[in-house]
Amino acid sequence: MSRSAATRPQQETERRIRANNREFNLQFNYANNYIKTSKYSVLTFLPLNLFEQFQRLANFYFLCLLVLQLIPAISSLTPVTTAIPLIGVLTLTAVKDAYDDFQRHSSDSQVNNRKSWTLRGTKLREEKWSQVQVGDVIRMENDQFVAADVLLLSTSEPNGLCYIETAELDGETNLKCRQCLQETSEMMDNHELIGQFDGEIICEVPNNLLNKFDGILTWKGKKYILDNDKVILRGCVLRNTQWCYGIVIFAGKDTKLMQNSGKSKFKRTSIDRLLNLLIIGIVLFLLSLCLFCMIGCGIWESLVGRYFQVYLPWDSLVPSEPMAGATVIALLVFFSYAIVLNTVVPISLYVSVEVIRFVQSFLINWDEEMYHAPTNTHARARTTTLNEELGQIQYIFSDKTGTLTQNIMTFNKCSVAGQCYGDVIDEVTGEVVDLSEVRTDKASHTPTMKWKNGQEFVRPVYTPLSGANARLLEQADRISSTTPEPGINGAAKVPLKHSTVPSLDFSFNKDYEPEFKFYDASLLDAVRRDNEDVHSFFRLLALCHTVMAEDKGGNLEYQAQSPDEAALVSAARNFGFVFRERSPNSITIDVMGKREIYELLCILDFNNVRKRMSVILRKDGQLKLYCKGADNVIYERVKKGSEEIMSKTQEHLNKFAGEGLRTLCLSTKDLDESFFNDWKQRHQEAAMSHENKDDKLDAIYEEIEKDMTLLGATAIEDKLQDGVPQTIANLGLAGIKLWVLTGDKQETAINIGYSCQLLTDDLTDVFIVDAATYDGVETQLTRYLETIKAASNQQKRPTLSIVTFRWDKESSDTEYNPTREEADEHEADTPSGFAVVINGHSLVHALHPQMEQLFLDVSCQCKSVICCRVTPLQKAMVVELVKKSKEAVTLAIGDGANDVSMIKTAHIGVGISGQEGLQAVLASDYSIGQFRFLERLLMVHGRWSYYRMSKFLRYFFYKNFAFTLCHIWFAFFCGFSAQTVFDPMYISVYNLFYTSLPVLAVGIFDQDVNDKNSLMYPKLYTPGHQNLLFNKKEFCWSALHGFFASCVLFLVPYGTYKDGVSPKGYVLSDHMLLGSVVATILVIVVTVQIALDTSYWTIINHFMVWGSLVWYFILDYFYNFVIGGSYVGSLTMAMSEATFWFTAVISCIMLVIPVLSWRFFFIDVRPTLSDRVRLKQRLAQMRSRQSQDILRTPSTRRTRRSLRSGYAFAHQEGFGRLITSGKIMRKLPNGSDFKFAMPFASNNVSKQVSAVATTSPKENSSARNSHTPDTINL
């Protein structure tokens, strides 16, 4: 990030701190160490929460209505009808918000009450984190979190070194080294000296730059330059360091962790925002109706009403003059109709929405399919306001470490002298045993989940196929309970045999690690036979590294800059080549129990340009160079005549890379003493030069790192979490784009991209954006955009049909043959054949306001985007850019504190629990145990929630328009007097008791297809992207439907009962009887409509739908006959006559037949994918169960042709310089033990997603002729 990107208080230009002097530091009012992530306090909760709730336009609208209803002159309804529901909604939402904020307060309290040792005078005192102030000296101990951003003063390690883990900051779990000033390190843990330390620090102001710190320490008249290597940040964990002391520089909200955390934002769904817009439209519509009624009232009163004052006297405040009186009455009627017609959008809408969301959240919490047993973690909806947004996600922004991967490196395979080791071959069948199935055998067990209705949901078969949309529809009742092993490239593959082969027994080696697993016995046999090549291979792994060894309680433990390096040293250790210890000038290893000591002459450390590291060693007078690095780098430096071994190793490298393994080549070279001495002299000269030192050193390295002998290659597996490739493939099929935002280095990110099928060999190109300047980034992006445009102009590939139905002719009488045009609607969109990988330093420029559109143009036309080496704030900036520029619904998922900022920025934040602490979970809206559960969260619960909420809203507006507009038709017959056609009590409880339960049942339980089919057909998810299920058009259709229904509901009974007389001679044409009839038929019609709208019937649905209809008659009789309502006897009189029943039947037929005709026509002529899947689902339930071959799914481990080296050296320079300087050692070797000279050390230190092949027309024809099941392309 550039310095300008930092967040700084305007009033502070520099920070001045005096150690152990609180009085001096307090004058600057620096932030204390108290952390606050909550939004409310006890005092601010009520006003702030009400302010947030009244931002919802409907709440404000109902508040205005309540005020109007308090005015007797214009109110025709009691204020209670609005006040009680409004208060209920506000209270329900407030309780939920209070609970959410209480959780945040609990988290804050837990952090603030952590204990820290603070130096007061010369004594240590244990204090809470929240009491720590800037300028205090604190003591930190091993394996503890750092309380604030501190400047190191002294440590327990030699030369003032300490080791930290920064997983909470950048997601990396490898150790990093920090070193204090030599002058302050001498204080050690002497409290007298540290207490007297009075140094003054002048440094930068608080900012969000994690990798940069500038400051000056003035002490004892001398000035010392401070940089990032001397600072430990809050969120780090102290490792392998007994203790250290530091002075607090930034505390609380000023720490770099909190500066990167972002703010808690009030999140609303797109449906909420649409509802706000619709409310404005409805209010304008309501005002226009009120204006119409006002004009009608004015005309009627001036022409007719003034002559009826004897029967309808005007109020005392109305002038007696006809025109003036009519005008005043019309004005009052305007507000009266505003009250009468407010039920177009009743407050119960928002009560119902909150109830539906609340219950949907519990359905997520109770889903056992998203339970992660190893960590005992259930999925959890931490908010109840965003469920339907889960069904509209367009972009997912994911962290890598701990989210996509387990961050566990394992030595998987290797190639030594052209011989491949690691594959296990079944002796009987000759098949390759899939070792991944050994490790994840328990994954084949399929847990089931039963809802209360007893229906069982089975774990789906994940089938990522080609064409981005293609999926074979299997019979619903024939899904295997286990996930079969797929084929590659859509071709039939010889099944990989499940292994019963145990891992090798390394117990002969006293230093072996029980958790280390390897299955190919031939490699261990080669070691035991003293195979020279294999011994050289493992000897290199044991010697060529910068790992530190430490004996803890008799156990040998390694600390490495990179998990890859640790995995390689660990592999050598288990095979009998144990790295024992190192000093600045020696390395000690045990080879098959025998001690070998090597004189360390030089470390040629790794950097991002060299992509390799070497060590030069001497043993028994023989000089040897060991080198390991990226395959392309090593191959360029292998001596001539090695073509045979290079060719064989290349085959193995391709095989390893195709399996998604991280590859690395090993080489060695014998050195001549005289050549080395001459090279050593020139190396020292280059190291001492002040101009172009790095270039000179690289040239010197090139001299010695050439003409090497290739030993072989290693293959390390960076274990993905279970189901990640399948989940990513299925999310892609659903039209969701995945961007990976990681703090890890480029090579690692790219390699994981290939492993999880985010990058494939089907891509035309992978663009690397790594320029360091604005102009360089602009040039790269412009060139890539031109490449994309040129490729898009080329001839398009043939389109492929996306869905195939299969069922037996014998078991179905239905023959369904959609036309080619219909099939085309669901064909695959040909994806962009590109991916872009951009580095953090390039992203700084790409996010510049003048370049961000260019960056978006390139990125959004690419199939995959990977941003590496990004800071937490950059993650949030990328999310914000896509969120605003593309107006897309975004989801961010991560597991560490470095992901908090983007989780808060995205529309939906998902935290993965149990990986790197709870910061991400506490900031998230939803938490899950594994990345693979995201698929079910979105494509089942998210899609269902959006489907249910959309259907709920469509029906709700329909029934309320049908209800409310009856008053408009009645206005023509009551002189526009605001007289209601219904009983006031009916108006109050219509939405609360008579019609609420059926629509709640739909909003909670309804589903078009079951969860298995929701996962089997990802394309079902796409309607949410375009808001197809509820939008302005759908709202207008619902409103028109309600308008038509109200017209029929009022005019048909009116025509029936006008001047009506019963056979017994009773007059039927009275207001109360008409109102009762219209009200009853209205309840019957909307109940029949909700029955038509219900796709998934449960016992609860039946009870609520038919029960509410019975409940209406019970309540009506209770209110009128028991309580004594004004409409007593009206409904009884009406129902005693056949006229009522004929009227009800005619009205229902007039309103239901058009709806049924419309739906049957479109389902038959233009069925959606949902309609087709539902048809197949019903057919599957109807036909008898028959055995059928299970279609196989693509392999999770797929080959790729490209060769990628992804060895994860540390991003920074390794430990080489520190090792050879001796600073990193606890003690220097005794001269009597080693007669070695101190060494010198340098200071310098790219395909395919498996696709199921589309059956050719010829094959289709032959298949039909051979009486195979019909195939229907949709």
From TrEMBL:
The chain crosses the membrane at residues 57-74, 80-99, 274-303, 323-351, 956-978, 984-1005, 1035-1052, 1072-1092, 1099-1119, 1139-1162. ATP binds at D399, K400, T401, E565, F606, K628, R662, T742, G743, D744, R869, K875, N898, D899. It is a multi-pass membrane protein. The active site is at D399. This is Phospholipid-transporting ATPase. It catalyses: ATP + H2O + phospholipidSide 1 = ADP + phosphate + phospholipidSide 2. Its cofactor is Mg(2+). It is found in: Endomembrane system; Membrane. It comes from Nasonia vitripennis. Keywords: ATP-binding, Lipid transport, Magnesium, Membrane, Metal-binding, Nucleotide-binding, Translocase, Transmembrane, Transmembrane helix, Transport. Residues 17-82 form the P-type ATPase N-terminal domain. One of its GO terms (molecular function) is ATP binding. Residues 1252-1274 are annotated as: Disordered. The lineage of its organism: Eukaryota, Metazoa, Ecdysozoa, Arthropoda, Hexapoda. Its EC number is 7.6.2.1. Belongs to the cation transport ATPase (P-type) (TC 3.A.3) family. Type IV subfamily. GO terms for biological process: Golgi organization; phospholipid translocation. InterPro entries: ATPase_P-typ_cyto_dom_N, ATPase_P-typ_P_site, ATPase_P-typ_TM_dom_sf, ATPase_P-typ_transduc_dom_A_sf, HAD-like_sf, HAD_sf, P-type_ATPase_IV, P-type_ATPase_N. Pfam families: Cation_ATPase, PhoLip_ATPase_C, PhoLip_ATPase_N. Mg(2+) binds at D399, T401, D895, D899. It is an enzyme of class 7 (translocase). GO terms for cellular component: plasma membrane; trans-Golgi network. Residues 921-1167 form the P-type ATPase C-terminal domain.
